[in-house]
């Protein structure tokens, strides 16, 4: 319940007069009751509240409750409304748990795990037809976002982080999902990317003062975290290995400190070695992409609570282009071929050095709904299947600072869970074919 649309939606719901009148009647009645009568009334009310609770029991053939720990066979997840109440061994029933009524979901032939989390998606991204005028673009982006949000959730991704968007549609999408009006994953949104620019557009800045202002603008719009373009984009010549950082250090520090003044984290898009290391020295919380990480980057990333979001899936796209583009200059081809080898190798090296990876695919640049392909990449560079799953659950929740609610199926956390028919600890590709999705205790994709 953070932003504009939520206010509109809750205002609409709040205008339910009959409920308000009913509540007033109960209050008046209670005023005239004796203390004993009052107590009886409260007990009755409490019973009604209990009855109103929605209980669900999920029978899990195999349950990976906490990624990183061994899964257990034949478990029951007991869900009260939108959260996990407890997990019991064996297949429980409403009678065995002494619940008045509970819906039972049979996933006895499946592998059940927490909903997956992608820390780098652009749900409203993608190119628009030329016929769409600038002033209409944001409306079309919202439509694109609605489709992509649904696709992402149905692929088993119950939470995403959206580092950078154009316009306002990303906030409307996030609010619509929060309000339960649209189908999609839980969203953590950065607003507009902070970038070097003198055009005065939202997100652009060129000095300590203007960078502070650009961050404050995103906070005011409703950003959950801040994204900064610490280097050029991957495809640009200025993102080559030895290219300097595009910001000055005091400007990047201004971005980080302003975000921190509102307890917000900063995600830095960074490809070049100098750009990565300057961003980390300035205090950012995560490096997105990290094409040209070096030893110094690993050291800086090992400092407390920092994350690497590798987006290796983009390598699939670059490879396709390498095979396709005929008029590519030899220099560009050499540079791209080298980064195709070096980026995965350096991510693997960082992981071996102890750097914490949070899964991020860059869906929007690569197709939405194929997000689990990113986990196939992690296994391909040497992570175990379990380690890959940890990047998309436990580590992602920590990156968001939401580990009290998300990332595992422990008591009290949101009932965000998925089921697959094959064991993803034997073959990570099982996660590309999700059979069942539940978000906040509500079934999105039934078995
Ligand atoms: Zn991106």
Short description:
With 447 residues, the chain is an alpha/beta fold.
What attributes characterize this protein structure?
single chain, 447 residues, alpha/beta, Urease, subunit C, domain 1, TIM Barrel, four-stranded parallel beta sheet, 38% helix, globular, binds zinc ion
Overview of this structure, please?
The protein is α/β, with parallel strands linked by helices and 447 residues long. The chain has helices at 4-14, 17-32, 35-52, 137-154, 169-178, 208-221, 249-260, 273-282, 295-301, 314-324, 330-352, 373-380, 385-391, 394-400, and strands at 55-63, 72-80, 83-89, 103-114, 116-118, 157-162, 186-189, 195-196, 204-205, 226-229, 266-270, 286-289, 307-309, 417-420, 436-439, 442-445. Helix content is 38%, strand content 18%. The protein has two domains: 54-114 and 434-445, Urease, subunit C, domain 1; 116-411, Metal-dependent hydrolases (TIM Barrel, Alpha-Beta Barrel), CATH 3.20.20. The chain has a seven-stranded mixed sheet, with no helix packed on it. A four-stranded parallel sheet has the order 10-11-12-13. Strands 5-6-7 form a three-stranded parallel sheet. Strand 2 (72-80) and strand 3 form a beta hairpin. Helix 4 (137-154) crosses helix 5 (169-178), helix 6 runs parallel beside helix 7 and helix 12 (373-380) crosses helix 13. The structure holds zinc ion. Zinc ion (ZN) is lined by residues 120, 122, 163, 362, 365.
Describe the secondary-structure layout:
Layout: H1 4-14, H2 17-32, H3 35-52, E1 55-63, E2 72-80, E3 83-89, E4 103-114, E5 116-118, H4 137-154, E6 157-162, H5 169-178, E7 186-189, E8 195-196, E9 204-205, H6 208-221, E10 226-229, H7 249-260, E11 266-270, H8 273-282, E12 286-289, H9 295-301, E13 307-309, H10 314-324, H11 330-352, H12 373-380, H13 385-391, H14 394-400, E14 417-420, E15 436-439, E16 442-445
Parallel strand pairs: 1-4, 5-6, 6-7, 8-9, 10-11, 11-12, 12-13
Antiparallel strand pairs: 1-2, 2-3, 4-14, 14-15, 15-16
Helix pairs in contact: 4-5, 6-7, 7-8, 8-9, 10-11, 12-13
Zinc ion (ZN) is lined by residues 120, 122, 163, 362, 365.
């Amino acid at each position: 319940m953070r932003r504009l649309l939520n206010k509109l939606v809750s205002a609409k719901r709040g205008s339910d007069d009959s409920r308000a009148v009913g509540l007033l009647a109960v209050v008046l009645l209670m005023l005239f009751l004796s203390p004993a009568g009052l107590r009886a009334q409260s007990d009755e009310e409490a019973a009604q509240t209990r009855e109103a609770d929605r209980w669900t029991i999920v029978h899990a053939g195999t349950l990976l409750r906490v990624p990183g720990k061994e899964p257990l066979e034949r478990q029951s997840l007991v869900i009260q409304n939108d959260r996990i109440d407890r997990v019991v061994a064996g297949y429980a029933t409403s009678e065995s748990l002494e619940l008045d009524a509970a819906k039972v979901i049979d996933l006895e032939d499946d592998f059940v795990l927490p909903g997956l989390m992608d820390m780098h998606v652009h749900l409203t991204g993608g190119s628009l037809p030329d016929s769409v005028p600038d002033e209409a673009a944001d409306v079309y982006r919202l439509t694109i976002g609605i489709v992509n949000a649904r696709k992402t959730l149905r692929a088993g991704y119950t939470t995403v982080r959206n580092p950078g968007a154009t316009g306002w549609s990303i906030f409307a999408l996030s609010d619509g999902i929060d309000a339960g009006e649209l189908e999609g994953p839980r969203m953590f949104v950065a607003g507009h990317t902070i970038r070097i620019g003198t055009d005065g557009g939202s997100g652009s800045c060129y000095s300590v003062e203007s960078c502070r202002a650009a961050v404050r603008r995103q906070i005011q719009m409703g950003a959950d975290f801040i994204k900064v373009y610490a280097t050029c984009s991957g495809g640009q010549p200025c993102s080559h290995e030895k290219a300097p950082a595009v910001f000055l250090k005091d400007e990047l520090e201004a971005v980080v400190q302003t975000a921190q003044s509102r307890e917000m984290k900063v995600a830095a898009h960074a490809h070049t070695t100098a750009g990565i290391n300057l961003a980390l020295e300035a205090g950012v919380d995560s490096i997105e992409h990290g094409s040209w990480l070096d030893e110094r980057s690993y050291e800086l990333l090992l400092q407390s609570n920092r994350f690497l979001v590798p987006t290796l899936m983009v390598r699939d796209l670059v490879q396709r282009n390498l095979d396709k583009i005929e008029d590519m200059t030899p220099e560009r081809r050499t540079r791209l071929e080298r980064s195709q080898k070096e980026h995965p190798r350096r991510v693997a090296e960082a992981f071996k050095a102890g750097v914490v990876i949070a899964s991020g695919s860059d869906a929007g640049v690569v197709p939405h709904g194929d997000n689990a392909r990113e986990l196939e990449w992690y296994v391909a560079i040497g992570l175990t299947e379990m380690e890959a799953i940890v990047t998309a659950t436990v580590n992602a929740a920590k990156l968001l600072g939401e580990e009290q609610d998300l990332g595992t199926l422990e008591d009290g956390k949101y009932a965000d869970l998925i089921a697959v028919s094959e064991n993803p600890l034997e073959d990570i590709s099982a996660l590309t074919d999700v059979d069942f999705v539940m978000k906040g205790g509500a079934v999105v994709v039934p078995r």
